[in-house]
Queue: 2 jobs
Job 1
Amino acid sequence: MTGPRALALLLLPVLLGWAGGHPVPGTKSFRKLLLISFDGFRWDYDQDVDTPNMDRLAQEGVKAKYLTPPFVTMTSPSHFTTISGRWIEDHGVIHNMMFNTETQWKYSFKTTQNKTEWWDNGVLPLWITAQRQGRKTASFHYPGGGAKYQGEAVQRSLVESHTHPNGNETEWRQNIDIVMNWFTKEDFDFVTLYYGEPDSVGHLYGPDTENRRAMIQQIDRTIGYLLEAIGRHSLTEHLNVIITSDHGMTTMKKKPNITEILLRNYISFKDLVQFDIVDYGGFGMLLPKPGQEEAVYQALKNAHPHLNVYKKEEFPERFHFAKHERVLPIVMYADPGYSISGRIILYFNKGDHGFDNVYMDMKTIFRAFGPDFKKNHLAEPFDSIHIYPLMCKLLGVTPEPHNGSLAVTQEMLVDTYDQHTGAEMKRASALQNTAISLTVVTGVLVVLFVAGVTFTVFCRKKTQRADQNSTSEPVRMTEL
Ligand SMILES: [Zn+2]
């Protein structure tokens, strides 16, 4: 009976595959998801200013004590870790600036936003993965949303212009209205929305200033507007929201209080350095001229008590940063508050980031609310790398390989979540049960039918052979 059994077994997965997949095609089994990033929102920014809406969110949803961004604590690298679940050395977006050591060209953060070659390094962001699994996705100003990945663009993507103002509260509200319409009128499933504040104000005035506190109140009002807009668009039971950020901010130290880091004091750029990424806050990289790597390293490694210098291959593993080919041979980071200048000091920021992610000033926020999240739940701190599998779970998307773990965030979800959001999934379960029953019945019928045919043919052949007085071997069923 090998043949009929094989046939029946072949039929089973075909029929099961029709409805046994997850989710069932054509059914709306999962809720929509909005990911909002407020750039440079330090973990404790809501603690010295009134934030009634964020307080309300903490009661109506999930608040992590803080979130640890990846190193380097910089906008594009960190945002791409959030959207891909990969460490920076895996996804390859290692800096805000795109650069080319051959041509010596450097492109600013905003210029890179339309440069696919900076973002598309083989790691797929969630927009593309979700699209390939039938979800409708959009990016509103989110870093990396304007690039193509393996030739595929995000279905809808708005990229910040060079002159886009960061702090216009009226525009912030308009952007929320646009996104709400994407969800309700155009049935988008997953949208990422980015705001350039409070990063700008943190750089310009410093994190511990009245200007920053005023900006946090503006963000809080915007979150209040978001809550109201979600209700107005009848999305309360259909939309999960994650509010997070890419890094914190620390106050920069200046002369005469400290001795600033100026690399020219220790090395000759003209003689030793072919290409450099410095003058960009507390992080820097150098490509020494051929044969000069050791000389550069020796000259810098003990040059300044607040400058940490490594050869690329000796950079600490815990940063998950230096393995990518784009990382230059000498990697440096300063202690918090120190900037790394090259030939002259051209540095004006009063606040900055880019420092070791172990420091509390580099930690950022994680908030979440919506039908699939618990209420009034205070989560322990975690790494932003784990947001990706959580988003995949919420959207019902099978993740790409990633460095995160759903186990870290699973406790934030309501207990019934694993029953696949209750009533909505009952329909899918019923379909699956029907399919399985049909499969079993069909399988049995097929087996009976084939066995019947086999037996009939066997008897007929046996009769024929008996008639011919044949002595050849018996007929095997498998010949059928
Ligand atoms: Zn940033």
Job 2
Amino acid sequence: MLNSLQATALLSLENLKSNLLVTQKIAPYSRRVVIVKAQLYGHLLDEVLQTIHTNLNSQEVLAVTDIDSAVSIRKKLPNRRILLLHGISNLEEAQECYFHNLETIVHHPSQIELAKKTQKKESPSPFIWVKVDSGMHRLGFTLDQITQHFSEISALNPHALFSHLSNADSPSDQQNQQQITQFSAIQKSFPDVAYTSLSNSATLLNQLIPFNKKEYIRPGIMIYGLSPNPIEKHHTIDKSLKPALSFFAPIISLKTIKKGSFVGYGGSWQCPKDGTLAVIKVGYADGYSRLLGNRSSVYLNGQPYPVVGHVSMDLITVYFNKQTNCPPPKLGDFVELWGEHICLYSLSKKAQTIPYEILTGLADRVCRKIQQE
Ligand SMILES: Cc1ncc(COP(=O)(O)O)c(C=O)c1O
């Protein structure tokens, strides 16, 4: 399966399906808006999109941030509901929205007039969702803006009120309750709006609100098999998620390395004992962070081995000197960079980031393959 000598992400459609089932288990009565922005959180392949699509019902939605991605999905999935998370910013986008039957968020007064132009006279017209700022202070109408533009917003006949919790991965943080209370107060001003949407993966996994049939849940990272919660706080439900993507890269050179030799740019690592050095075809241009040099490990034949020296643009170097019964590395072997044995949560900590950034930072040049299961 891993044959061409390229850094390769293996994608498990079975794991994806299993994660979709977890969302249904948590919120069996709610509809889902599955977040597929940033090229499906780096998963990229049409098979991933199709798997998500075929596991949703006809009233469920895919969401992206920009119109180009939405149009590209529309061409593949003519009947799927698609939501633009950032709304539209000019007349041309409004026309594209109209033409391709896209649903849009309105989060700012400047979008109200444009949103009207996405509406069709004939029914059913694609829905407009109104985003309110319940306390994250990023996108969304503030209370003042809602008061000022109340009649224009109401005239859009919104399908759902939408907001985003900033601290849902810390369930006991009082910011969550403040935002939920603020959101409910705003909701009372819009009694005719049938639906709400407040829950990302952390809100779902930490069960911060009741998930009734009026709520559109918005799972993102959990669909791809990762929890946004800190790993030390993972409960059974977080642990039931199955990462859909594991990452491998091939050994393209092997050499003996003498005690005292320096390796890589700047010679940041000095060999402590004669051993073998494997040069692996992956680097920061593939999305393997430069911060991982001299910090991370890769896995091969039953053992982890340290990444030594700096990560360069296209290569990393790994030191093999363990006296084990494991088979020695061979040219063309693929090492696991993360996956079953190298935990992405721990790796992202070493790279001073979060799994979201690592996944969405995987370069286009990384080969994606569907795992045969
Ligand atoms: C508006 C909105 N809703 C939901 C999500 C999904 O978040 P998560 O991946 O944490 O589930 C995102 C992702 O950033 C988002 O921007």
